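Q: Here's a chain of 444 amino acids. Please give me its 3D structure as tokens.
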Amino acid sequence: MEFEVTKIIYYLAVILFATKLLGMGTRKLGLPQVVGMVVAGLLIGPAIFSQLPGSFNGIIAPTEIEMDVLRTFSQIGVILILFSSGLETDLKDLKTSGFASTMIALLGVIVPLVLGTLGAALFMGGIPETFSNTDKLMNALFVGCILTATSVGITVETLRELGKLNTKLGTTILSAAIIDDVMGIIVLSLITSLKGGGNPAFTLLKAALFFAFSIGLGAVMRIVFKWISEKYPHKRRTGIFALSMCFIYAFCAETFFGIAAITGAYMAGVMLSGLSDTKFVDRKVLVNGYMIFSPIFFAFIGISADFSNFKPQDILFALVFVTIGIVAKIIGCGGIARIMGFKGRDSLAVGCGMIARGEVALAVYSTAAWLIYFDNGTLVGIDPLFATIMLIITTSILCPIFLKLLLKDHNDESHGSTVNAEDYVSVSASDESSQIKEAATLKA
């Protein structure tokens, strides 16, 4: 079966117009634009209309081969999103974030992963049945993995508005979020590389080999890019070479190590972060990504959604999923912050500052959505797309409300000596990179 190039051009025109229109609309409501982009995909595609009486299947109704073309565009989009996230990961922050931020991030991954997996298991026949069935267990782990993601864009804006972004508390949240992203990506890679029955030890070995490969090659590439950026500052060639490295890392990760391609893209960004031309490269990536590929990625999630198996029970699951997503971050991040020396109000603020979800959660869903299906294409247990969208919307609303309530009249002298002042010296770079990201994702 062949496809017409003009049809793809038409689809792209509709997708870009609809995602921008609804993205601006959700932004006006105080929600991330990614929510509007996914909703745009739902409204223009067959996901909803194909379930209604009549022959109308949406403004665009791609054939199977046309969906493959759009899927290719969308995968480039998610790779660019994670590459940009890697570029904005300041290595100095990772080195100086300290034990407290590391532990906050660690519990911010473990607790949501565990509670999310157990919560999903309850909707798939119970915990014993789920854990005795490999396919269902992978589905449940996938649900838990989505909950590990953290998006601090809204948190950054709220802390800046309250004048707390450069405080010890604000920097702790940002540092923990950076480490949280790294750990979440690693967990995603481990889960997807298991492929429903792989050897965990072999999977860990492959993951270790991939990170050794990434760091080894990256160390050499950093030297090369440092020379290029200093000799030819702000040249387009630098951005082109960086994108080439991004795609090579993504290809090698999935082809040779069985690791998710987005992990490779993220690592490529990390290895190029902190250089003199990193911000220049990041801006180029954001322009290319958020002008074309990223909107297609978010819209494709909505266009390809399958609600044929949607049941009233899925609404209950979404409520449980959202509740677990909020409570798990507050317990995990806020609880360990309390143990690490933060006072009660501040530890609760740390937990609330980590509840926001955004594009990373959708990237996790898109990357590992195949885990919810049997080999014959039927649903294993739960499709968490609707629940993920609800989580993004709910946390985007609640996160700033919680922070404003908790940090009202805050004097920033409330945590003990367990957390060293050295842990907070690198806020400015993180702040600037967050502003770049926010400009692209929330204010465009």
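Q: Can you summarize the key feature?
A: Residues 413-444 have pLDDT under 50 and may be disordered.
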